[in-house]
Amino acid sequence: MVHYLGVFSRAADVRLDAAIRLSPDGSMISGLVTAEARVAYKKEAMSGDDLLLTTWIADLDEKRVHVAQAMVRGDGTLLSTAEQLFLNFNLLSRRVEPFLPDVMAELGRRVEADSGTFDPGIVSRRMGIPRIV
Q1: Domains in the chain: how many in total?
Q2: Is 38 inside a domain boundary?
Q3: Rounded to an integer, what distance in angstroms lies between the CA atom of residue 107 and that of residue 101?
């Protein structure tokens, strides 16, 4: 059986690559840490299954990014959905910090590109970035 959360986390890393900052020597200065994750199991994935994982950026603020994800078997069967809330974490100061302006702009473009392209039912009403109404 596939380890769903690990697979979803690796897929999110690929989609959120813009948030990783490296020093001139190539060591990581900041990256994303998971603040909250939720996986909804639908059907079993077996070792050897061809899987398609899709990650959409659902929302963003100055320190957090919220993603929605789907895992589909090669035959089109939906196996699982997930959502994760990540924090921008500075590895030197050991603190959550705002995204740099260029990172925020790139992630913002990705939010706009993904808007309306995923099932909003994947995203929980209890998890995400609170908005003042």
Answers
A1: 1
A2: yes
A3: 10
